[in-house]
User: What shape does this take?
Amino acid sequence: FGKLRIDIGTLIVVMSLFAMIQAAVLIYQYKLNKAYPGIGWWAAGSLAGAAGFALNVLREMEPFRIWSLIAGNGLLVAALVFFYIGVARFLGKTERRGSLLAGWILLLVLLAYYTLIDDQIVTRVVLVSAAVTVISLMSAAVLWRNRVGAALTPELLTLTAFLLHGIFFAVRTVEYLLWGEGFSFFAPTFMQTLMFVVVFISNNLWTFGFVTLVNRRLHDETREAKERFEVIFHTSPD
Assistant: This one.
């Protein structure tokens, strides 16, 4: 970004506000369409993401630093797990919730170890980035297997968001494995600033994709009901 200096703390606050707005949108969708499975998980994921972003603000406040690191990262990964479960259920697929929970708990244990016992910031970045990569690509894979046609559909739009998210964090994982020394979360480096840009774009894309998926299902059900009524009407002897 050349001479442009972007305050990471400000970006975190902005991301938290947008995440709360997205959570409100998905909660509203859930209240309107409780019959559809998965929407509640999307709403829960947005709330977890908003809380995770908000806790990042406390990273430089010593009384809260340790717990904000563990809880903040844990919530951000949990948000993606919730999104994955929501996508799978909305599309009528099953998810291995036990395996997901076990993996998330293992991540928390490792984060706690590399925060409380052996403070290794680069290791934490690699762990979280790798977990985000795996969960994001899992969501993309479910959407790809259940896409409708080759045109631009809600599945492809949402898939693009998770694919972008997953690929970026895969690159981030490799980068910090190879050149992660001296990492600072609040340093406005190119990679750190780009991370917030990618997360912001992905969050908006998959929120829009979720809403579009719901609206298309509503439209499909309305069309099917109309066609069924027309068949009954035209085949009625009276």
About this structure: The helical segments are 8-32, 39-56, 62-90, 97-117, 121-145, 154-179, 190-235. The radius of gyration is 20 Å. Residues 217 and 223 are 10 Å apart (CA to CA).
